[in-house]
Specification:
Blueprint: H1 6-10, E1 16-17, H2 23-28, H3 40-43, H4 45-57, E2 62-63, H5 72-75, H6 84-99, E3 104-109, E4 115-116, E5 132-133, H7 135-151, E6 156-162, H8 165-178, E7 182-187, E8 190-191, E9 197-198, H9 205-215, E10 219-227, H10 228-241, E11 247-252, E12 257-259, E13 262-264, H11 269-273, H12 276-282, E14 286-289, H13 295-305
Parallel strand pairs: 1-14, 2-3, 3-6, 4-5, 6-7, 7-10, 10-11, 11-14
Antiparallel strand pairs: 8-9, 12-13
Helix pairs in contact: 4-6, 6-7, 7-8, 8-9, 9-10, 10-12
């Protein structure tokens, strides 16, 4: 294998390029509402590989995998919980084939969709409430997914779109303690009426980076929820707490606008690219896209970084 660790390359001062949106890309290829995106890794692997390859061709140094909803708790909604390992291994394998030997696969791990029972509370109090799961069950779900992603050829696990520190830390530990994957963890923040940023569970960028670094994350950051300009403020807040941890940003192509019942992301590739130098100056080391971004956006970001 010719690839170094992502962190090793970042420490040389090189700014790396990640990929763009997957969900909206799958929808363009025909993913219907209520259909399991991750099952496409089994049923329509060529379409999934085409997405991954398009980002590599656009200049991405790393690509994710079609595994965001790959925990058993998300897959059980489709009756696929018993195929968790199979689906995740297939997802990583597809991206590995698209990435070749020179690029990295940072396979996606999203939230379980459950509330995690706090460590100091009695689990029996939550018996019969399907919304909650224990910390052990959450850890085991992330472990199964991470092990399968590594088996499929991933280099790193991108624990993303997190809003709860407890769940993020469990995911980080499950990856670190059961695989040799590098671990990325990004939170999703929204701008409050007071002008600061909080996750859905009330976590600030400062709290997120402090907790994930303490948990042993290799790369921290933010994804979704904001366009690239607002990510500058988020990265700036993170850098106040930690000057050294590599930071990854996956920004949306602007804030969505609902036009005729369809969410449209307004920022063009050129709109995003012109903000990139300021984002790098704020302290971002790896830059890619989230909702609404395309290979054209990634190519423009690549050109802006040079």
């Amino acid at each position: 294998m010719s690839r170094k660790k992502i962190v090793e390359v970042v420490k040389t001062g090189k700014v790396l390029i990640s990929d763009g949106a997957w969900g909206t890309f799958l929808q363009k290829k025909g993913l219907k509402a209520g259909e399991c995106p991750e099952l496409w890794c089994i049923d329509r692997p060529n379409d999934v590989k085409d997405i991954a390859k398009s980002y590599i061709d656009a200049g991405a140094d790393m690509i994710e995998a079609d595994s965001f909803g790959g925990t058993c708790y998300k897959l059980e909604h489709y009756g696929l919980a018993d195929r968790t390992a199979e689906i995740n291994e297939a997802a990583a394998k597809i991206s590995r084939e698209a990435a070749g030997e020179d690029k990295w696969v940072i396979a996606s791990i999203g939230p379980t969709g459950k509330m995690i029972i706090p460590e100091d509370e009695d689990e029996e109090d939550y018996d019969g409430d399907d919304l909650y799961i224990s910390q052990i069950k959450a850890y085991d779900a992330f472990k199964i997914q991470a092990v399968a992603l590594e088996k499929g050829g991933a280099d790193a696990a991108c624990v993303e779109t997190m809003s709860d520190i407890n769940e993020a830390v469990l995911a980080i530990k499950a990856v670190k303690e059961n695989t040799n994957l590098e671990v990325i963890c990004t939170f999703t923040f929204e701008r409050t009426m007071h002008g600061n940023y909080k996750s859905m569970m009330g976590v600030s960028p400062e709290q997120a980076i402090k907790a994930t670094v303490e948990a042993g994350v290799d790369i921290a950051g933010a994804n979704c929820g904001n366009g690239i300009e607002r990510m500058i403020e988020i990265v700036t807040e993170m850098r106040k707490i930690n000057k050294d941890i590599p930071i990854l940003v996956h920004a949306n192509a602007g804030l969505p606008q609902n036009i005729d019942g369809i969410d449209v992301f307004p920022e063009s590739p050129e709109d995003m690219a012109k903000i990139v130098p300021d984002l790098v100056k704020a302290g971002a080391n790896i830059i890619g896209g989230c909702c609404g971004t395309t290979p054209a956006h990634i190519a423009a970001i690549k050109k802006a970084i040079g």
